[in-house]
Specification:
The structure is a homodimer. By secondary structure, chain A is α/β, with parallel strands linked by helices. Chain A contains 13 helices and eleven strands. The radius of gyration of chain A is 23 Å and the shape is elongated.
């Protein structure tokens, strides 16, 4: 029987429920006699290379449950994208600590690291079972109906747009907010869940799955504003022109890039301000407000989906079960089996590693600036119980006396 | 016995609980036989002048309760700051509709409108009872311990910084967020409620009550970053230099101004981006992220304080009781009478109208870039039940094998 340590780490951008997966895995792992210790690597794979491990066997159950309910990676995370040498250093550290199981919670880049480490272990004849545990607010993982972390971020975005739309309704004008999502528009599209009745915003939704055309954009904003006297707009940070050049890059000159070669899109209000200025100057609308949801949408404390919490817990637990009882390395995938129920599966790492899923055409309205009812049906069960509801006065008008 | 219509309106920026006050007033008003109709003016006093009234007597109780739980002014709001002529038009419309009671929910500018209207009514010998019902996320009303709307906005800011701090802890660097509050720093100061243990952010808090000095700012950011390897900063949108010139104005050239002559500070990420750039260029710190909380902090659906909901409801109900049974016009004030309990009082309009309360010196740390324990004691009971709590792994370290 395989025995040794189980090492777990968290990579990439945090989510509001990523610690559910950590705790789901840790609590499950502690049941198995053959697991001689549950180690957490601090700051992702960087912590493995640096042997920066904490003993998760020593954490109390009460504290683990409190951590599970806390947003953002409790072990710390990393944006490092390991190359082959880096992965060999990871493996050397895992070997030195007698690791038999390696779990890494993250997105498609994280899956790629797991894939390389598992291949290097096999090549060197080291018996290491490697499982990728999914998370990403972008919802861009292949093979899964959706990714843990997305439902809670979607709930935040929906509730944010609901409030912003009510705000804009009371003080009319144009309101625009930029939502995270470089290549996949799922999170921006979730803004559609803010609508209840005809006329509710967001009235326009711009996704990275469609080329952004400023002339069409301005024409659509004007049309909504002419009709309702106001306009609420959701914009993905990743919108780009027909050649694929992000709008933010076109205007921004030198941009910060991360280790993956991606331009920094978040943590700045530049794109929102740019679009707000264009609307002001080109359409002559006076009251234009442009927000950028920034880091709140992935780490806000106190706005998670119960469905997301439960599933994030389950993928962690399932990953350990697969690592112990399963027959190979892999990535945990979520499969929708009903309306609404899910099953979990272990798929081979190459199917997920480094790949990006974007929104299906069936989810995007023909106009290119809205979602379809099919997307709303897909999203609805993910948002969970107790989603805020916008109510309104029925507003029976009183007859005028002076101006009748 | 005075009899006639009761007209109610909402003015200024919305809050997450302003409809509690509306509904508190409407439900109470509908009990009195001498109130011959409860009218809501759409878009504040502009709706009065335009005779844009809806019949709140006709709204069902169930819908009113649902509206009470919905953020942002259900009747619509206005930024109009009426002069004497405007106020005479308000009065003419109120008279034409047989109004005996006028309630206006808003901040200190709203109170000023109520004051002028009440004086004009008295001068013209028209028997009109006028009551200002307080609301403002800025918490800057004189005579009150705090203003309805502030506790919920403070809860949002606290939970947002809690999440942002956890995010920054997992991917270290500098995180800065700009919070609403032109002259009063209460809402920015509320970020301090995000902290649990030593080392938690926000590490630095910059308020409009103290002159902003960029050299001191950079030195403090550097000091925190050197110590913790990261730094989380809360900045009020109203920070200004020793001469009172807002930082945003110094850099921004021509700025949009509202009817009150105030420069637009919200709805743009410019200040956050500016400060982020300064930190990057002057301190050479690579990972700097700058958010602007924008409109979410005053209208986010699903993050209110139960204390705030209850008190906002009570000030509306209390205003009607005072209008019916009281002896004069006035503004409703909240008085803290215990730890924690409140009483309500009607104070004369001139004590609140057009005046601004700022943070007491006792609430601001000698450093000028933090709050005191006295402020945290003041804030704590306002935030309500079920505030998110940040938990952390205790993190017992595993001994190194390779690098010991």
């Amino acid at each position: 029987m395989r025995s040794g340590k189980l090492v777990i780490a968290q990579g990439g951008g945090p989510t509001a429920v990523i610690n559910q997966s950590l705790v789901g895995a840790v609590l499950e792992a502690r049941f198995y006699r053959q697991i001689e210790g549950v180690y957490g690597a601090r700051y992702g794979v960087r912590g493995i290379v640096n042997e920066d491990f904490v003993d998760l066997s020593a954490e109390t159950r009460a504290d683990l449950e409190a951590v599970a309910a806390t947003p953002s990676s409790a072990l710390g995370s990393t944006r490092d994208k390991p190359d082959l040498d880096y992965c060999r250093n990871i493996l050397a550290s895992l070997k030195a600590h007698g690791t038999a199981w390696f779990l890494y919670i993250g997105g498609n880049d994280t899956a790629e690291t797991v894939r390389i480490v598992s291949e290097e272990a096999a090549k060197s004849g080291y018996d290491l079972r490697c499982v990728h545990v999914p998370k990403t607010i972008d919802n861009d993982l292949m093979e899964s109906d959706h990714a843990p972390g997305f439902p809670s971020a979607a709930r935040f975005v929906a509730q944010a747009f609901m409030g912003a739309d009510l705000d804009n309704r009371s003080l009319p004008g144009v309101y625009l907010a930029v939502v995270m999502g470089r290549d996949a528009g799922f999170l921006t599209a979730a803004s559609a869940a803010a609508r209840t009745v005809e006329g509710d915003g967001p009235h326009l939704i711009y996704l990275p799955e469609r080329a952004f055309d400023q002339i069409k954009f301005l024409s659509e904003v004007k049309s909504v504003h002419d009709r309702f006297g106001r306009c609420v707009i959701a914009v993905s940070e990743g919108i780009h022109d027909a050649k694929g050049v992000p709008l933010s890059v076109k205007r921004a000159g030198t941009m910060e890039k991360d280790a993956h070669g991606n331009v920094q899109l978040s943590g700045t209000g530049a794109l929102a301000d740019l679009l707000g200025q264009v609307i002001k100057s080109e359409l002559g609308i006076k009251r234009v407000r442009a927000d950028t949801f920034g880091y709140l949408q992935r780490s806000f404390a106190g706005c998670t989906s119960d469905v997301d919490r439960r599933e994030a817990r389950e993928v962690g637990e399932f990953a350990v079960k697969q690592a112990i009882w399963g027959t190979g390395n892999g990535s945990v995938a979520i499969r929708r089996t009903g309306d609404y129920a899910v099953d979990y599966a272990l798929v081979t790492l190459d199917k997920v590693a480094g790949k990006t899923k974007v929104m299906a055409d069936a989810f995007i309205a023909p106009s290119g600036s809205d979602v379809t009812p099919a997307f709303r049906d897909y999203l609805r069960p993910l948002l969970g119980l107790g989603l805020a509801q916008a109510a309104r006065l029925r507003g029976v008008a009183i007859e005028k006396v002076l101006k009748r």
